[in-house]
Amino acid sequence: MDFKISRSSRQCSVCSHRFEDGEKFHVGLITRPREEGVFDRVDICRPCWDRQGPGNVVAHWVSQFSREKKHAIYDPDFLWSVFHKCRPGAETEAAASARELSAVDRARFAYVAALGLVRMKQLKSKESRRTRKGEIMTLETLGRREKDRQRFEILSVSMTDDEMQAIQDRLSELA
Question: I need a labelling partner for 70 at 20 to 30 A (CA). Which of 6, 34, 79, 156 fits?
Fold first, then answer.
């Protein structure tokens, strides 16, 4: 399987509207017909999204267009990519390349990406529960309707400030 999230196309995939600086839009992943497990990115302006809904989008999030180059820790598209590659249950070729990292590092990368997405209001924390593995956080994408929201579970990883900074530095190197 292939799972690489490309950068923004800078315009709506439906109506070709060019995004303005600061404009919010939806980013979606769709499967390619006849290519199982291969995903393409689509950028959809809010009016088109409101008109058509998620359709055949298998994962989505809201992004904000900016002409400025963002530091990796502040780039929601990059954090979503890391989150989807490193989170538990990721079954893709790109995730396979992330498997070159230790399980501990994958958990740390996914956790730091999730925290960044929560901080940017791309995800919200719904609940947490204790298991034998540790604390599991349930996160949810934003959406007006409950059926449009997606839920993810991720292990809450304890890290020192230095360990957290080291993961952020490594993320910056990957961007």
Answer: 156
